[in-house]
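REQUEST
  id: r-88c1
  op: predict_structure
  target: von Willebrand factor type A domain protein
  payload:
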Amino acid sequence: MNLSSAKPTSAKPISARQGVPAQQPSEPAASLLWTGTTLPLFLRPVLRVVLMIGALSVALTQGTASAEQIDLDVSLANPMMLSGEKEINYLRISLTGFEQTAKGERAPVNTAIVIDNSSSMSGSKIEQARKAAIQAVERLDDNDIVSIVLYNSSATVLVPATKATDRESIIEKIRSVKAQGSTALFAGVSKGAAEVRKFLSDESVNRVILLSDGKANIGPSSPRELEQLGASLVKEGISVSTLGLGLGYNEDLMSRLASAGSGNHFFIEEADDLIAVFNNEFNDLMSVVATEFEIHARLSKSVRPVRVLGTKANIIGQDIHIPLVQLYSKQQRYFVVEVEVTPGEPNESLELGDVSVEYQNLVTNTRDKLSSAVNVRFTDDESLVKKNRNHETYAYCTIQIANERNVRATALRDAGQIDEAKQLLNLNGRVLAEVEMECKDLGVAESVIPQLKINRLFNSQQAQGIENDGEWVKNRKSMRAAQSYNSAQQRYEVKVPDSSSK
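RESPONSE
  id: r-88c1
  status: 200
  body:
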């Protein structure tokens, strides 16, 4: 779709009324926040927050095909479509991880902690980085593998990959870390990956965790080069999470590395939040229940796959292959596929396609398979299309479309097209508010309403501040973090303290 326009390509299936300004929910932003509503970390620069961990709990409502552990749900935003002309619809493929019931169920961790110890990290940054790494090591079990890599003007291995049996010795080495030199970021990630490879196993959770506060200035340093590195590591079964600290790092480089590396990306404005983010990252690491996913959707001949929103999927003819490295306990991970459907006759039903999933179960150490199909029915009655809408799927698709619009708004602001960027952000605010209110009025899709509200609030706030040149460096990082949060459905959230907190 042409995101430079204020009109989304989702006009027919998602929004007969999207161009109409919706009434904003009546409660002010502040009153919403004091009630304990959780907000993602990307709102940290906008509001004073306290970091917390929280996974979204999402109820599956339609066509669930259950394996022994993982649930697969395949649904359409509009299960009923108008006959007569081609229309766009949205297919949501959703996977939900089973709950870990005991500590002994978790897979061993094989991780490299890669720390920027260049001169810009001096002071509280390196101090908090040491504390965060130490607390992470203290959480490991004897069967876990850990390595510590430092990078400044070059990359060095402080702790080679080893079982975490002598944690005190590892911690003592971390305490000796000092800040000095430049930023050889590519070399740091590469060396961290080399340590993970020493114990690489499909029965472990293999991840590089990168911390940086500055721009890569030695070795390969473009977002494209780091994105390619992340993509190559994913093919080996190694994911990459990136933690950007302060206002000096390259958010395009860090977010694209994490996205290609199937990891998390975070903007941490204050060093004091670093320990909490590290803890949450390790909460994720220790809750992985499945890895090495092969997600394959095959569409019927009358359905044209257009794209997969927010994900670099491989589309060949009617076949769609979607990459996914891991799934966490109780996590819902979904993908939105935009499709163009050739209509049938009224009352005719069409099998739109089928979805198959294979994955490595880290609890049973087996290769599990599951599948599900989805149908669409045609009508000449427009009211039936709306009446039969799957509001939960419709809402999640709206969030992903708004997220892509937010990406476009960032590019427009970079190009100096501030008014156009503001229009897109305001459009997002209106559309998200409209879907949010519709779900509330109908009493449906309660699980997705908080996400609609979070994204509506964020886009509206960014629209208000988009003209402020002095805040753009910070706001841009916040927007990139928000985009990563939505596209990967990250599980970390923040909570605004009650009114008595300062």
